[in-house]
Each structure stands twice: as C-alpha cells, then as structure tokens.
Amino acid sequence: MLHHGPGHPPSASADLASAQLEAARATAHHGPSARRPRSGTALCLSGGGFRAALFHLGAVRRLDELGILGRLRTISAVSGGSVVANLLAHPDLVWPDPLGAPARVGGIEELVAEPLRLLTGRNVRTPAMLARLRPHAWGRPDVTSRVLADELERTVPWWGTDLREHRRGGPVILTGATETGYGVSWVFADARSVAPRGRVGDHRLGYAAPPPGLRIVDAVAASCAHPPWFAPFSLDGRTLGLTGGVPDLDEAPEVRASILRRVELADGGLYDNYGLEQVWSDHATVLVSDGGAVFRGRATSSPVGRLWQLLSIAANGAQTTRLRWLRASFSAGLLDGATWSLETPNTVSAVPGHGPEAGLAGCYPAALVSAINRVRTDLDAFAPGEQMVLERHGYVVSDASVRRHSPASVALEAPVDPPHPQVSDEARAADLLAGSERITALGRR
C-alpha cells in the first residue's frame, strides 16, 4: 500500500500506475490456491544441471509408460530441466491425440533418450568458460552463454531452428530464465503456446513474439546460464517489441531504458527452480520432478562459508515455500498432483497394486539414495554409469509418487520395469557413483 504525506494526495496517474503494477504482479504470482478455471496437466522439470536432466529422463520414461506424457497440456522447465523439455519438442516425435484414447509417445528412445545421453556425456561447461579468455570475446559480456548455446547445438543440431518457426505436436513447452533487471521469471514459449509465433518476455518488461534469429538453443542456454560459470544471456529489448509490461512506480525512465538496452537472462532456477509460476494457477493437475541439489545442514566457521550457507538458505527457502504451497493445495483439493525429488525414498512396494517383488526390482536403499543426492550440479561430462543410475532412480521414484499421490493421472496400466538392470545392484551402483560429487576445474572429459 502507498502512503502519502500531508498535503500530497495521490494523483490519478499514480493510482493508475499502482493498479497496473498490482495487476501485473497478481497475474504473474497468483499461486496454486487461486480459484480460477483449471484444465489439463502440467509437468514441471526443475533445474540441476545434467544430473537433473538425467533424473528427469527416467521420470519422463515412466510417465510415458503410464500414458501421462502423451496427455500433457504443458511442460514448464528451467535449467537442466529445459534440456529434456526441449528434446521433447523434436518435430518427429509422434504424440497421441490428447482427446483420443490414451497412448504412448512414439520416438522417446531414439529422439530424446539417446541424444540426452550423448549430450550429458560431453563437457559443454569448460569450452564456454574458456571462451572469455579469447581476445575476440573481450567486450562481449555474454560470450560464455553464447558459446554454451553453440556447444549444445553441436550435439542437438535441430535446436538451431528459430523458436518462432518451430512446428511440432505435443504439449506447450515453456522454458524459463531469470530476468535480472527486475528479478522476475522470463519465459520462452513456443508457437503452440500463443499462435502463430509463440511469445517471450515477463510481466514487468512485457511480452512479444520471439524475434527472427532467436533459436531454440538460445532459450536453453539462457535457462542454463548459472553464474559464475556462465554470464547472463543478453537480448536487445528495444528491438523485441515488448508490450504490456509495468515498471516500478517510482522508476526513472532511464532505468527502464537501461534494462531494455540489454535484457540479461540468467539461469531460470535462480528465481523459480521448479518452473511452477507459469502453470500452477490454471492447470488441474501439476506434477513436479525435482532434480535440484538437496539442501544439507552443515556447521560453518569461516566468513566465506557462512556467506555461502546464508545464500543457500535464501535460495532453498524460496523453493521450499513454493513446494509447501503446492502440497497444501493438493491437500485442500484445489488441484491434483504429485512431486518427487532426488531424495524421495524408493517405496514402490508400499504403493497399492505393487507387490514386494516389484519393489525389490526397483528400489535403491537409503545409503545409495544419499549418494545420488550428492551427485554434482554441473554441465560437465557424466559417465555412462552415472547416467544409468540417475535415470533409473528418476523412473522408480516418479512411479511411486504418481501412484501414491495422483493415481487419477494414470491413463495406462504398465508393469514397473526400471531401465538399466545392470545398475540395479547397490554395490555396483555405488561404485559407479564414487567421486560423482566432485566438480573439477577443467572438466572430466
């Protein structure tokens, strides 16, 4: 609420500006408890680097088997989750009719799983970081995120398609970044979201159709541009044609002009690591796959360690609040859904309809789940063994959570058959994860 001193009544223009700002904030931030018409299912894929992407792959595989993937209305993703989400935008994937009989999506293995394993088997972080040392990069503040985009495109060439020109089937895909000028969520939405070209923007700067030359891979790179590894991805907002945004009430024109001159987009997980804000107010069902780092308690003695812990608390608190709000809405019956994460216990055998044999086939014990929780957040190369363990874990815990908390979402009955049986043994999987928590300066490959 605005307060005005004696003799200074609010002007009509101030009232209008205040109303516009509050309306913009309400539109962007109304949460899962908002009572609005709801329809369809949204899948949210969190950030967490290649670790999260591989974890999400396992979840996507199981959701496909259960007939859920083919009936999604929206996929909202940030950072590592955006890698999987945009692989699901492949034009050759065969999506079932969402109004027809439940069916699986055709082409998941060859068009999503195989390219993801190739991509996560490469170190795309170090080449991007080293690019800033080259003379031609001096004076280019976003060179690291631009090189990251080029590195991603080397493995996924079709991501070089302009976002506005990409045509495909399946759900709307929303790729989130953090716009650093106003500190809000920026969205890259493909042509299936808003015909005929899609849209980009946020509720403070406004929205527009994606400009020519803005590639799918640019959206992925912006969503993954986590400091200090990568500088924010920059766009010239003056050329985008953004409309509908609302500045701060007391903002000087030159401040907004400066933000527009170089719109800086950092990792989407900095603001909303679950990609929830884009979907939680108007979908009937929300499923959240969380491959983000697990917050752990620790004693700190040095000033640097204490500062890092405080920053971690701030980031974790915001995400925890979102999840608690969402789960409270599940409990209140405002919407349906389920969440799962790296630390979700593998309790398949406790789910109705599953016998102990199914649980034994899929479970990793608590000690191994703890090792999975410690796997690094990075865009460095992941070995095949690490890839398999993470994918298998995502498959099992997503199945357990959906069946327990959102059984109405299940459209097809399919036996639990976790991928990669060669890593089902606890000792074997533990050996493959040995040292997985370490981040090396120049990368592993």
TrEMBL record:
Which keywords has UniProt assigned to this entry? Hydrolase, Lipid degradation, Lipid metabolism
Q: Which PROSITE patterns match?
A: PNPLA
Query: What positions does the record give for the motif labelled DGA/G?
Result: 267-269
Question: What biological-process GO terms show up in the record?
Answer: lipid catabolic process
Q: Name one GO molecular function term.
A: hydrolase activity
Report the protein name in the record. NTE family protein
**Record PANTHER family:** NEUROPATHY TARGET ESTERASE/SWISS CHEESE D.MELANOGASTER, SLR0060 PROTEIN
Species this protein is from: Ornithinimicrobium cerasi
Keyword Chaperone part of the UniProt annotation:
no
Where do the PNPLA domain residues begin and end? 44-280
- Which InterPro entries did the record assign? Acyl_Trfase/lysoPLipase, NTE, PNPLA_dom
Active site as annotated? S79 (nucleophile), D267 (proton acceptor)
